[in-house]
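Progress note, sequence design subtask.
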C-alpha cells in the first residue's frame, strides 16, 4: 500500500513571517521595524541588514511587491502579494498544528 503525502511548503522563518504580516498594509523598512518591535513587545528587533536582506528575498520570491509611492519620497514601500498571503495562511495553519500537538503532550505530561 502506498501512502500519499501532501506537498509541504518550506516553513517561513519568524523574520519572514513577521515582515509579511507587517506588509498587509503598504509599509517601508522603518515602519516594519516599528511594527515588529511593537507587536512582539520588544522580543524581536531587526537590524537594518537582517531586515533589508529579508525584504529583498521576499521580493525576489514574489511574496511582496513594490507599492507605488510619491517619486519625491526616498523610502520604498512594499505590500504583500496574493502569493505572500497564501504562504502566511499555510504557515499559520502549520503553526496551529504544531501548537495543538505540543499542548496535547504538555497537558498529558507524556508522549504517546
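Output:
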Amino acid at each position: 500500500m502506498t501512502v500519499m503525502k501532501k506537498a509541504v511548503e518550506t516553513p517561513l522563518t519568524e523574520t519572514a513571517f513577521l515582515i509579511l504580516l507587517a506588509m498587509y498594509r503598504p509599509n517601508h523598512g522603518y515602519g516594519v521595524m516599528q511594527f515588529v518591535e511593537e507587536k512582539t513587545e520588544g522580543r524581536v528587533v531587526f537590524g537594518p541588514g537582517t531586515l533589508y536582506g529579508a525584504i529583498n528575498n521576499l521580493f525576489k520570491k514574489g511574496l511582496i511587491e513594490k507599492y507605488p509611492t510619491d517619486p519625491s519620497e526616498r523610502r520604498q514601500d512594499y505590500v504583500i502579494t496574493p502569493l505572500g498571503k497564501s504562504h502566511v495562511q499555510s504557515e499559520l495553519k502549520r503553526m496551529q498544528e504544531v501548537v495543538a500537538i505540543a499542548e496535547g503532550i504538555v497537558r498529558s505530561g507524556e508522549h504517546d
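Residues 1-8 have pLDDT under 50 and may be disordered. Work on this subtask will continue into the next period as scheduled.
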